[in-house]
């Protein structure tokens, strides 16, 4: 065997090793988003929506649910390049005429599988959501 043949035959093995070292990208889906007992202000009941982020990526924004302390959102946030241990960040905002008010932030490191969470919001109320990574 020449040295050239020896190198060629070891190449597939090298590629295999390199491939197993890279982090696997997975699909993230956030769904079943709903909130309960959102606070009301002097301006009235909350008009809330959710903004989602995963790592440095923006996942999107739901529609605004007007005058509802117990809203739910049918939107699904999808991210095709998520990785295990990325930080999933969900922000609940109250839509107002001038400034939107941040009601609370939910952050967690994502894991493979389907997980359901309740997250207490800083200004009152709870955000419920489910995510699937895989
Ligand atoms: Ca409002």
Automatic annotation (TrEMBL):
GO MF entry, a single one: wide pore channel activity
Signal sequence, renumbered to the chain: 1-26
Transmembrane regions: none
Protein name as annotated: C2 domain-containing protein
Residues of the C2 domain: 8-129
GO cellular component: membrane
Gene Ontology biological process: defense response to virus; immunological synapse formation; T cell mediated cytotoxicity
Keywords, comma-separated and alphabetical: Signal
Pfam families: C2
PROSITE patterns named in the record: C2 (PS50004)
